[in-house]
Amino acid sequence: MLELSILGFLYEKPLHGYELKERIHGLSGHVRPVSDGALYPAITRLVKNGLVDSRTEPGASAAPRRTLSLTAEGRRELLARLRAPKDAEITDGQRFFTLLAFLGHLPDPADQAAVLRRRQEFLSAPASFFYAAGTPVTAEREPDLFRQGMLRIARATGTAEKAWLVEALRELEAKPGREDTP
Predict the structure, then answer these.
(1) DSSP 32-70
(2) What does the alpha-carbon distance between residue 43 and residue 6 come to, in Å, rounded to a whole number?
(3) Torsion 82-87-93-95 (CA) sign
(4) What pTM value is reported for the model?
(5) What span, in angstroms and rounded, lies between the C-alpha atoms of 151 and 147?
């Protein structure tokens, strides 16, 4: 998800490494903090693979700063990742939120809707954090107060997300295709 975040934020505009780190932290840092030890090697890989361009510019004070920007190949890669996200990017809530943060970059509403339909399908399957004899345990059947809380919060969040997905899909299906705009 780190690479997707890097590509997604650089799709919007060139950034210095520190600015990029702050944006990634704002998106998911409270759940999955990003360290310099993870961010800068990921940037290096993306530069090496021709997806990101890095150039040195004079800094505001004395130190020069690296400005990162997306290459044409990087734009294509981002759009490909958004069109065909991995299963974990659909099933894991935080990964899905990262995907949602950049899904608007896809130029075709049909492609956006296809991703949302995958999430909708995932959410429609019965699931729980806890099972008894292979059956999902509901909050009403869970004797532990704290597990009840987990299950009730998950149900409320899932209900809200399902309602939003229905609304978003309705809106996307009403749109004609649009051109790719930076």
Answers:
(1) SPPPHHHHHHHHHHHHHTTSEEEEEE--SSSS-EEEEEE
(2) 8
(3) negative
(4) 0.86
(5) 6
Q: Let me know: does 179 contact 107? Beta carbons within 8 Å.
A: yes
Torsion over CA: 10, 2, 30, 59 (sign): negative
| pLDDT single digits (tens) 53-68 | 999 877 666 677 889 9
Our measurement of the distance from residue 133's CA atom to the centroid of its chain's CA atoms, rounded to an integer in Å, reads: 34
Give dist(CA 42, CA 13) in Å, integer.
18
Q: Can you tell me which residue has the tokens 């993306």? A: 46
Cβ atoms 82, 76 nearer than 8 A: no
Q: What is the DSSP string of 64-78?
A: -EEEEEE-HHHHHHH
Cβ within 8 Å of residue 100, ≥6 positions away: none
